[in-house]
Amino acid sequence: MSTVERQLEDIHSTVEQEVPGDITITEVRYEGPELVIYTRDPKRFARDGDLVRRLASKLRKRITVRPDPGSLAPAEKARAEVMRVIPEEAGVTDLDFHVDTGEVVIEAAKPGMVIGRHGSTLREITQETGWTPEVVRTPPIESSTVKNVRNFLKQERNERRDILERIGRQIHREKMSDDQWVRITTLGCCREVGRAAFILSTPETRILIDCGDKPGSDDVPYLQVPEALGSGANSLDAVVLTHAHLDHSALVPLLFKYGYDGPIYTTEPSRDLMGLLTLDYLDVAAKEGRTPPYESEMVREAIKHTIPLEYGDVTDIAPDVKLTFHNAGHILGSAISHFHIGDGLHNVAFSGDIHYKDTRLFNGAVNNFPRVETLVLESTYGGRNDYQTDQEDSERKLKQVITETIENDGKVLIPAFAVGRSQEIMLVLEEAMRSGDIPEVPVHLDGMIWEATAIHTTYPEYLRDDLRERIFHEDVNPFLAEQFNHIDAGEDERQEVADGDPCIVLSTSGMMEGGPVLSWLERIGSDPDSTIVFVGYQAAGTLGSRIQNGRRDVPLRGPDGRSNSLTLKMGIETVDGFSGHADRQGLENFVRTMNPRPEKVLCVHGDERSTQDLSSALYHEFNMRTFAPKNLETFRFV
Amino acid sequence: MSTVERQLEDIHSTVEQEVPGDITITEVRYEGPELVIYTRDPKRFARDGDLVRRLASKLRKRITVRPDPGSLAPAEKARAEVMRVIPEEAGVTDLDFHVDTGEVVIEAAKPGMVIGRHGSTLREITQETGWTPEVVRTPPIESSTVKNVRNFLKQERNERRDILERIGRQIHREKMSDDQWVRITTLGCCREVGRAAFILSTPETRILIDCGDKPGSDDVPYLQVPEALGSGANSLDAVVLTHAHLDHSALVPLLFKYGYDGPIYTTEPSRDLMGLLTLDYLDVAAKEGRTPPYESEMVREAIKHTIPLEYGDVTDIAPDVKLTFHNAGHILGSAISHFHIGDGLHNVAFSGDIHYKDTRLFNGAVNNFPRVETLVLESTYGGRNDYQTDQEDSERKLKQVITETIENDGKVLIPAFAVGRSQEIMLVLEEAMRSGDIPEVPVHLDGMIWEATAIHTTYPEYLRDDLRERIFHEDVNPFLAEQFNHIDAGEDERQEVADGDPCIVLSTSGMMEGGPVLSWLERIGSDPDSTIVFVGYQAAGTLGSRIQNGRRDVPLRGPDGRSNSLTLKMGIETVDGFSGHADRQGLENFVRTMNPRPEKVLCVHGDERSTQDLSSALYHEFNMRTFAPKNLETFRFV
To answer: Cβ(B24)–Cβ(B33) under 8 Å?
Structure first.
């Protein structure tokens, strides 16, 4: 009998001792990090609201209780019961019964009303039907990504259950080694921006954190070195994704092509955004005639293997590692990933990308942890002069540029990342128009911006407190303002807009490395009354960076596939302060107020100068050990 | 056709163009790092003493010319010819003809006389017989190790030839990667003394430098991590052994158990000493009832796969790595290993263990290199107070202790490493007795000391200039002085000595971790007139260290296998200054006068305090980047 079997038997006995005598436990098993308890008496289990919490605390595991299939009311009968229990105002849009797990997935416009106070409505559903309810939000703006992901996971439910069981056994395996050490290996994004990838390893466990591409370059993380995938992709125990931007996520699906079949831990919005962005990444590659590094099937594998975690959930992901996500303030679902290793042996936090102050979209990054000795900190704006304008001043400047351009009868083109910056700018524009700071003109959203916005409205829990409140009330959801037009009819619609009245165009890609922004450039770039406004980071080598630096001859590929050159006559402006990244001051403040203050900081995800400047400043200011690692190095802690 | 085949065809054509028209080339092939040219006209080849040098320079390879088997005189006829050509004074002791390679191995007391001026006698042998002579020295003291190694290699000649051909093809394979980086991974001996092991890696090549055990501990190098042997022992291109002490060599044979079948580069004396010491290591393990980590068969594999290099030979060991050994002054054959990587990309020197000043046995360590950017430096005595007495003062103190003990009618017991320190002390004692500084008493050599001394006399080229000269003239070979007695009749002989007159005993093991020194301790430890004198490094945790620190209750295992306790009554003295390691001053001087001065220094092979002290001192004194790595870290250069 394997050690996991023995463990489960012990847990089974403990559970039977702990629950009232009239509750029958038929099985306990692992599904991913969770312990699932099957019972013939789900209704009795649901009676005692505190029972699951007590069991979880006793067993020190995350627990899900499921009805034994034999104890379930038939789906059609249950459907009526469920609908009766849930208040009508909850706005249920779908009910989906899964006989194999005894779960009913309830999609509703107002999930809170399905849950009820302290989960009372959920418990009532179980008591009435035996089914275990799971609640998801009906996207206020329909998102095809969210719909596709949910449908796909529904289809693959059986396979996913097997995957989760395998992963669960892996997580709860017996520790093998008496050795104690913690190491971080840098596979990318050191002394550069892009291709984020780290390995966190102990004698027991190897975890890959992020696996991105590098904008403006073909460079990929050093996956082939022995300490990465040299002994096979399945030598990894887990992949953790801090957020969905391609420089962190693009090559995650590639791992499955290499034979990985373990879990990806990330937040739910990051999972969906990863799906959206990586599929687009494949699309762009195909359009540009490059062979994509993997096929869309691998994106589906990645989604199927994703175990979504919420901020603050402390989750066992290996026998000696607990993972907790904390809001990073950078984009939807972005997470500082905190690893607690061993029994208090060491704590490492990977910042991913962070924004320390509140923005319109997000609360600022969390920097409060139970313990943390080592911090791996992004340094995008870590250089000694990388101070950004206050957002208030930036907004003032942006509004001024827009007003002037529109009064000149011109158009404003804003290249923006579909995910994050676009929604921030949308919020600025919506408020500015509402308050009369800028003229009311149409705001055209091109590329994936509309879809990305839809995903934002699906997960308002991840947005800034006050924004979340507004979205909950559909009548004041700023993303639904009528100025916003989704460009969904291709080149004809673009030409119409270009030929028309003053307006604002928000278009991908954010660094002008392809996408519809090039089409806009072609159409309005030679209009001296129009203006292009950069509001995001432009990586060295990208077209965005070159235009920003004054280049006015722009190579374009015509519709016939031949290369043309366009001479820009439009105004070129940069308004910083909208970045999703903390600036130098923000990074220092993040560390200064961090609780507890880490002993060691690795400054990564910034060019050579930025990482070295930041490393040196943190050392001198806070007297901590700091490093500006190179790629392919390994640091040992403990 | 493989790229190596094509390469060899090109070389074949070039050779044919370069040699006179009357010389037929039948084959060119690789054997290890060398290019072997087979010719039907070895005699004509031998005519032009400069031809091989010209070819080597043209092809930028090390070249050996061999007769095509068809062109050889029959062995018996050749034997007479060879003996006629070599002067009788050369003292030939063996001739061994190898038909497969056309080589005749000539063992002679005076190899120089077999070689002749600028190799003239060797050329004459080839001209007369067609055979290619190879010369080895007849050990002045018979060494069973040297004899066994030579016989074994003779037996395995065919298999060895296949191994060398395979290695040769591996070395001369085409470069695969466009990437450029150089990394060092620490697998042991960081912030500790013992278990030396490093990986030097490039995108092309992975080299293991040393693979030792840790005295006084069961710790072994971290071979199982992915970046070591995680993707198989054959993911290594080469193993380089800096010297034969067990803390550098003990686990080299283990690699062959793990499936390694590539080359070991080391000096010829290091190869023989490694054979001696690792076989003894297995013996000791067996005697102590431990399961040895490998069998003696693996030691033979290691020897079979060894490619001996001489100091100063620049040798291709991979498509992008050239290795050169330089005298390290530490023990016989010890080598600073210099790696030239890429075409001028980077140069790394691993000091191994070094002694910077001349000792009686060896010239001081070389610190002159064509180029070197990174130095990996031992730090055994790197602590801020690790200054050692001058050898002159040490010798005075040693002589004083000996004289007093002998005048007291006592015996002097000196625990010493068989290899290195023993021979140094022998030279001190021999001179002291010759000059009347100490009384003439017998010096008993126990354990492997006699055998190790025999190996020293086999390779006088590796000894200090003036000592080498004395050994060449057998009448003044200090190791043959009549005071020296080989304890070769076991416990009876020991008891006789212990019961007898004053004398000196040099015995292994050096740190009293087993071996005959314990038997001596038992016999004379309770004699208050006798003295034990420590002359070498005592690692923490060893019995030697404990006695040195004042412990007088010594646990001993009696002949019946039961544990006894002995109370020491003998005097306990420490005379430092005989260490094979540079002291703090020596290490600083080594770096100060190093040419060129390296940019970065990794301080290793010392306890935590020593490595950090040395690292900090070198940083402040020489303004270089210095590190005190931990085990399991990876540093990237370039």
So the answer is: no
**Measured between alpha carbons, how far is A373 from A322 in angstroms, rounded to an integer?**
15
Q: A176: distance to nearest CA of chain B, Å?
A: 13
C-alpha distance from A224 to closest chain B C-alpha (Å):
10
Q: Do B633 and A635 touch (CB under 8 A)?
A: yes
Q: What confidence category does residue A426 fall into, taking pLDDT thresholds of 50, 70 and 90?
A: very high
Phi-psi region of A420 (alpha: psi -120 to 50; beta: other; left: phi over 0): left
Residue A631 pLDDT: 98
* Beta-carbon separation of B230 and A225 below 8 A: no
The three-class DSSP label of residue B603 is strand
d(CA A391, CA A576): 8
Q: What residue type is assigned to position A112 of the chain? A: G
CB contact under 8 A, A632 and B181: yes
Q: How far apart are CA A476 and CA A482, in angstroms?
A: 11
Among B181, B183, B226, select the one facing A231 at the smallest CB separation: B226
Q: Calculate the alpha carbon distances from B85 to A17, B66, B104, B317, B613 in Å.
A: 96, 19, 14, 36, 60
Dihedral-angle region of residue B342 (phi above 0 means left; psi in -120 to 50 means alpha; beta otherwise): left
Report CA torsion sign: B412, B413, B418, B421. Answer: negative
Other C-beta atoms closer than 10 Å to the C-beta of B580 total 25
Per-residue model confidence as pLDDT tens digits over A81-125: 999 999 999 999 999 998 877 889 999 988 889 999 988 999 899
| Residue-wise burial string across A142-163, b where 16 or more C-beta atoms lie within 10 A, e elsewhere | ebebbebbbebbeeebeebbeb
Please confirm whether the linkage preceding A33 is cis (ω < 30° from 0).
no
Residues 6+ apart with CB under 8 A from A186: A197, A198, A602, A604, A629, A630, A631, A632, A633, A634
Contact of A346 with A637, CB cutoff 8 Å: yes
Reported confidence tier of residue A75, pLDDT bands at 50, 70, 90: confident
Pairing of strands A563-567, A182-188: unpaired
Interface touch B227/A632, C-beta < 8 Å: no
Mutation for A interface: B206, B602, B634, B638, most A CBs within 10 A: B634
Contacts A–B by Cβ distance under 8 A: 50
Angstrom distance (rounded) from CA B79 to CA A259: 63
In contact, A288 and A557? CB cutoff 8 Å: no
Question: Residue B194 to residues A20, B189, B226, B349, B351: CA-CA distances in angstroms?
Answer: 59, 5, 21, 19, 15
Chain B residue with minimum CA distance to A184: B633
Label residues A374-409 b or e (16+ Cβ within 10 Å = b): bbbbbbbbbbeebebeebeebbbbbbebbeebbeee
Give CA–CA dist A533/A225, Å, rounded: 41
Classify residue B12 as exposed, middle or buried by CB count within 10 Å of its CB (0-12, 13-18, 19+).
middle
Neighbour count for residue B255 (Cβ, 10 Å): 25
The string of pLDDT tens digits covering residues A378-407 is 999 999 999 988 889 999 999 999 999 999
> CA separation (Å) from A78 to A120, A519, B319?
18, 53, 71
**For residue B593, what pLDDT is reported?**
97
The residues of chain B scoring below 70 in pLDDT are: 1, 473-475, 558-561
Q: Which of A225, A231, A634 sits opposite B632 (nearest CB)?
A: A634
**Does B632 contact A181 at a Cβ distance shorter than 8 Å?**
yes
Q: A interface toward B at CB cutoff 8 Å? A: 181, 183, 185, 206, 225-228, 230-231, 235, 630-636
- Which of the residues A630, A631, A637, A638 would you substitute to probe the B interface, choosing the one with the greatest number of B C-beta atoms within 10 Å? A630
Count of alpha carbons within 13 Å of B313, Cβ hemisphere only? Answer: 18
- Give the three-class secondary structure for A28: strand
For the entire predicted model, the pTM comes to 0.89
Q: CA triplet A536, A538, A539: central angle to 5 degrees?
A: 140
